[in-house]
Fold:
Amino acid sequence: MNVDWQSLAETDSGLLLGLGVVAVGLVVGYLVGRVSNRFLRAIGVPAAVEGTSFERTAQSLGTSTVALFSRLLSWFIYGVSILLAFQTARLFHTTVLWARLSAFIPDLFFALFTLAAGFVVGDKAELTVSERLRGLKIRDVSAIPRAAKYTVVYVALLIALSQIGVATGALLILLVTYAAAVIVFAALALRDTLPAAVAGYYLLLQEPYGIGDTVQIGDHRGVVQEVGVFVTRIEGDDGEYIVPNHLVFREGVVRIRD
Amino acid sequence: MPSVRDLAEDLVSDVDALLVFSPSSSYYERCADLDIDVIAVDVENTVGAAQFVELPLSFDDVQERIRFGIEGAIDNGLIEDGDEVACAAAVFDSEVDAVVRVRASESLRTGVYGLFVDSRADASVIRDVLEVAIELGKKGQKGKSVGALFVVGDAGKVMNKSRALSYNPFEKSHVHVGDPIVTVMLKEFSRLDGAFVISDSGKIVSAYRYLEPAAEGVEIPKGLGARHMAAGAITRDTNAIAIALSESDGLVRAFKGGELVLELDPEAY
Structure:
């Protein structure tokens, strides 16, 4: 009988090592899951995601966003440890496949993670914007929060796809076009309000005139009632003038002392 | 044989509208099927009612609450002068437990609704100032009762009708009445005499102002002191409203147009 003791011992120790790696992976994965759960709770994620549709879906499935994320993290570590174990145990000799797979799995995980985070952040953005706009009772105003949500989700999707190596060139061009359109639109829309706001900050910080002073701005003369970021309210004899702050700068102010 | 049900029926027979105060959504849904006008009255329109009157603060006194609701409903054109209305409100509990029948008429008007809605300053600012005054009245300064006077709105004119008693601690500051730190700050500053001047948008413009309005023809109840007289007079002379916390009896009173329109006991809130 000619048993190859040496190689058997090698396989055995490899197997043992592999099992050890799996065991460590299980413990570490569990602990990381627990810690990340605690951490996410401590930084106030549950309150932040409250009311988003992602959280609601998670709730209806008997879990929560935080639990889902920390479990995803645990699974990732389990998966990596099992992969590592296979490699150390050398159970298979198709090393090329394994090498590619073990390189791909983290990417896939991060892609999933980004996508999930994108959905949560997108939901949150939608919620925040719609809360801001709730006072406005305009038809079709609901399109804006939805646009905010899908923008975030789209960007997350792009990141996720490029993470797993899918060609995203065309999608990227679409994003750039969209962003450019938004920027041009914002630039046009804010052409008057932005200078007013900048001037308003100067007026608020330096207070060249305050509430109760009598001033003249352009043709408007009266008592200052209010200085805001965008406008200054001046009450004259025949009405209250609401003067945009950039006009205050352009026209200058006459303070009238008596 | 008359039953309790008949007595209750007298209360609600032939009413023109039903005012429900702070209803839960299930209660409101039950009311919505009725064949008369149902008007929800609450601090916030949580039930999504089509006919709604907003309460500026959750009046503890049911009479005040109903008065405000009816005044608001008349003002918004939801009910008319002379209408008989039934009011369902919560008196002891958070659930509706009482029905009151009232004839909506001018005599119910106390000007509380106008104080919030028709003033220059934002209703939310007036509410914040009232809350600060109530808070001050409840706790006082180190156990001793304090007095305070807040003049809200039309700040430019008020500043011109008053003079500084001391350096203005709010100079070049941007403190608003809704800010969380304000109660503590105002408590400290209320130790010195003088009025706080607050702008339409809630910015605290100045403290320690000595008000110099013309006080002719101001009718306030006898027995109130100089602070209340100044409060009444400044609201007659300008478009501001004034909220005074009495040092002697601890009550919070609001003035508008030279008249006392609201009297609240801070202990009840």
Observations:
- Strands of chain A lie at 214-217, 220-227, 231-236, 239-244, 253-256.
- The two ends of chain A are 120 Å apart (CA to CA).
- Chain A touches chain B through 13 residues (CB under 8 Å).
